[in-house]
Amino acid sequence: MNNASDITSGMNSVTFVSGNADKRNDAIAILSPHANIKLVDYDLKEIQGDEKEIAKEKLDLAMKIFENEIIIVEDTSLRFIEFGGMPGPYIKHFNKTVGADGLHKMLYCYSDKTAIVRSTVAIGVPRHLTNDGHRQIHIITNNLQGKIVEPRGENGDKNGWDPCFQPAECELTLGEMNESDRRKHCSRVGALYQATKILKNIFNQNFEAAEKKEGNENGSVKLK
């Protein structure tokens, strides 16, 4: 049986694990107003599978490495409608090989240049931080539609595909946007905002369970 001190000690702290600096920057910007966040620069091995399978596997691995912490991981895919959703979660490998210009050329001869950026965020809560003693897993998916264009701009991840992705109803590519505007058109940011709502429920439910166990009537710590 978990005691109150076990739960409250890590109640509003989360660990975001990623070897990608842009992901870590987005995480600290979105999550830090709501939780005590620790960033860990660590590349998690990725299996073959769909976005949810990959995110779940990354989360499982991170929870084994950082077993006493609430963990958040994220996986981003870029899906070309013309290619039935490929490259999808394997975009990192495609991008390393051909770059933004190569991604544009892949669709150059096709009329449908629609692409969807999909961010999958996975949250894992270890057993000792839950009120029922069972590990909790939460998966969040957020999509952003746009199109692949000739690369423009050097902002964002200039070595990634930001310069060739133009969000729907926008005249600029992600590579042409400043940081503030890019975050308004970022699937990962949208998924992280959804994550704050889940974290709020996790923190408050666990504190209420701890408070009940202690018979403490001094109020509860709420997510900001």
Automatic annotation (TrEMBL):
Pfam families: Ham1p_like. GO terms for biological process: nucleoside triphosphate catabolic process. InterPro entries: ITPase-like_fam, RdgB/HAM1. One of its GO terms (cellular component) is cytoplasm. One of its GO terms (molecular function) is nucleoside triphosphate diphosphatase activity. Keywords: Hydrolase. PANTHER family: INOSINE TRIPHOSPHATE PYROPHOSPHATASE (PTHR11067:SF9), INOSINE TRIPHOSPHATE PYROPHOSPHATASE/HAM1 PROTEIN (PTHR11067). Belongs to the HAM1 NTPase family. This is Non-canonical purine NTP pyrophosphatase. It comes from Panagrolaimus davidi.
